Amino acid sequence: MLKDDIIRELEENKGVPLSGQYLADKYSVSRNAVWKTINQLKKSGYDIVSGHNSGYYLAEENDIISEQGISVALPEKDKDLRVKVYDVIDSTNNEAKRLMISEDIDRMLLVANQQTGGRGRLGRSFYSPADSGIYMSLIYRVPGGVRNPMMITMAAAVAVVRAIEKLTDIKPGIKWVNDIFVGDKKVCGILTEAVTDLETGMAERIVVGIGINVRKEDFPAELTNIASSLRVEDVTRNRIIAEVTHNLLELFDAFDAASFMPEYISHNIVVGKRVGYERTVKNAGIDGSVKTGTEYEKAVGVVKEVCDDGSLLVADDDGIEDRIFTGEIKMGRNA
Ligand code: BTN
User: Fold this and answer.
1) How far apart are CA 315 and CA 183, in angstroms?
2) 92 lines ligand 1 (CB under 6 A)
3) Which atom of ligand 1 lies closest to the CA of 189?
């Protein structure tokens, strides 16, 4: 489609004027067709500059998410990744799972400008307004499968942290398990879902869903104290999406916890903090032996360590140590 070709030309030549004649010749269409398409793109929000006789170009600050814009920003080795961009969708994780039912996809990136049913962990919703955030899901077939999807989530947190540190001056932190914080507020959440082979218990394909607040300044009342955004002006969402995706693929393709756990641990903001958590109830049997049940109870304690296997070591107020492998911790006033 001419529209897609012109978006690609503009993304590849950001800031460089392309004449209507050049585009018309290249795609064997009339100059009028080029002009009409440029006008349509402008109407749909593209920040296209058109000077007298100087041609058309995309302003540096243009921030429309597009397949072409992401692909241009991806390094050469990742350019063949299938990418699909939606203006509005219920949830990119939902769409990924729908696609996986009808197609045998090895890897694919789905991105939305807005989600109407964005999902967070533990059944919560994820606030996903238009034009200011990144809502992306990577479908990835894990060669040989993965037994512990939590490690995937931790690698994803490192992928996001690396991207933020490369593209901005921000120093992000990780709140165990997978929230990215700037200061004391959350700017990014990660929801990893797996399609598990019931016989082997291995996750064969995973969907890593990442939501990043990039430019939003005013959050709904219930989120103002807990959520914030990167508030960067000079980096496009396409660029951030491409960097996060590249990092994810690099970490997943050569999956080795040793290559990211030190970074995961050193970025954690939970060590030394007082947190609320849930632990398994340990019942004393009649014979005095300790039986560990599947019941949970609430506890409060101080985090001593994020361990190499991704678990959290917490000491409660009586000095009893607990190792937490899943779930969530509450920090600060919520502990
Ligand atoms: C959390 O903070 O609890 C996880 C939030 C994950 C949000 C992302 S946005 C893209 C993908 N689609 C969803 O519906 N959720 C994830």
Assistant:
1) 25
2) yes
3) 2
93 lines ligand 1 (CB under 6 A): yes
How remote is the CA of residue 140 from the centroid of ligand 1, in Å? 16
Radius of gyration of the chain (CA): 23
Task: Write the residue with the smallest CA distance to atom 15 of ligand 1.
Answer: 119
Give me 251's structure tokens: 């970490």
- Exposure pattern of 79-112 as b/e (b: 16+ CB <10 Å)? eebebbbbeebbbbbbbbbebbeeeeeebbbbbb
Cα 138 to ligand 1 centroid, rounded to whole Å: 12
Q: How many residues does the chain have?
A: 335
pLDDT in tens, the chain (335 residues): 999 999 999 999 998 999 999 999 999 999 999 999 999 999 999 999 987 778 999 998 899 999 999 999 999 999 999 999 999 999 999 999 999 999 999 999 999 999 999 999 999 999 999 999 999 999 999 888 887 788 999 999 999 999 999 999 999 999 999 999 999 999 999 999 988 877 787 888 999 999 999 999 899 999 999 999 999 989 999 999 999 999 999 999 999 999 999 999 999 999 999 999 998 876 655 565 655 556 788 999 999 999 999 999 999 989 999 999 988 899 876 66
Q: Is 145 in the pocket of ligand 1 (CB under 6 A)?
A: no
Check: CB of residue 154 under 8 Å from CB of residue 178. Answer: yes
Contact 156/244 with Cβ under 8 angstroms? no
Q: Which atom of ligand 1 is nearest to the CA of 90?
A: 14
In short, whether 190's Cβ falls inside 6 Å of ligand 1 is yes
Ligand 1 atom 16 nearest Cα = 209
Residues 6 or more apart whose Cβ sits within 8 Å of residue 259: 251
133 lines ligand 1 (CB under 6 A): no
Question: What is the value of pTM for the model shown?
Answer: 0.93
